[in-house]
Specification:
12 strands, 7-stranded parallel β-sheet, single chain, globular, NmrA-like_oxidored, alpha/beta, binds NADP nicotinamide-adenine-dinucleotide phosphate, Rossmann fold, NAD(P)-bd_dom_sf, LysR family transcriptional regulator, NADP
Length: about 240
Amino acid sequence: MKFAVIGGTGLIGSQVVRVLNAAGHEAVPHSQSTGVDVISGQGLDEAVARADVVVNLTNSPTFDEASPAFFQTSMENLLTAAQKGGIGHFVILSIVGADQVPELDYYRAKVLQENILAAGPIPYSIVRATQFMEFIDAVLSWTTDGDTVRLPATPIQPIASKDVANAVAEVAAGAPLNGIHNIAGPEIFPLDELGRTTLSHKGDNRTVVTDPTAGMFAVVKGDVLTDTQAHLAPTRYTDWLA
Ligand SMILES: NC(=O)c1ccc[n+]([C@@H]2O[C@H](COP(=O)([O-])OP(=O)(O)OC[C@H]3O[C@@H](n4cnc5c(N)ncnc54)[C@H](OP(=O)(O)O)[C@@H]3O)[C@@H](O)[C@H]2O)c1
């Protein structure tokens, strides 16, 4: 099958391209660096013209109040191009529990992206993943002040990007779900504990202080970012760190 992987040079996109091509498919990466822009629409018609399936793995440049506009405009442009190109399956990657955290602009933006896809004319699949293991360092940096990192005890179920890419590729190569497929890491940790494990593994001298008001995950209620019923990926966090 032929896949147009939009955002195919990013963390997940580049791995999805590799997995699909290794399985004998023809997957082509597209992004601003290859001359395709989902916001201006530049190059989109050509990018999807020869594809059977579009996999959209683009990301907003910011996680703030500008992110809903990014996902709205990009989805409208991509769906227009995909419809013109006769695309039979459109896949996006969203976040487990995104609809349960409307306080976060970025999570509202991901739900908006899902809703635009589901309301559109093209058979689709939504893969929802938990927080990427590769994302934890950034989470720690956001609430670092000197030698202290403040983190709430929000339950997090981190997943390796490699496992996300395998799952996205598998869904993309299958029949459209016209629904949501949740994937998650094999273990759940309170975020503060995840921070301590990460720092100690790296020999980082910063100290984690538990603070229920710190950072973006402070607004998350209960365990909505985890899903024990999801498809559980194999990679454990400490193995990934190693
Ligand atoms: N972080 C998490 O824990 C998490 C969890 C679940 C789901 N997700 C979702 O996973 C998806 C992929 O994330 P990622 O970490 O792989 O993203 P990433 O590494 O930041 O890659 C983003 C990709 O989008 C492309 N891009 C950005 N703006 C573009 C534009 N205007 N036109 C065309 N291409 C554009 C980038 O290419 P250029 O650099 O060339 O523009 C790059 O290929 C996101 O939608 C995110 O919401 C993330």
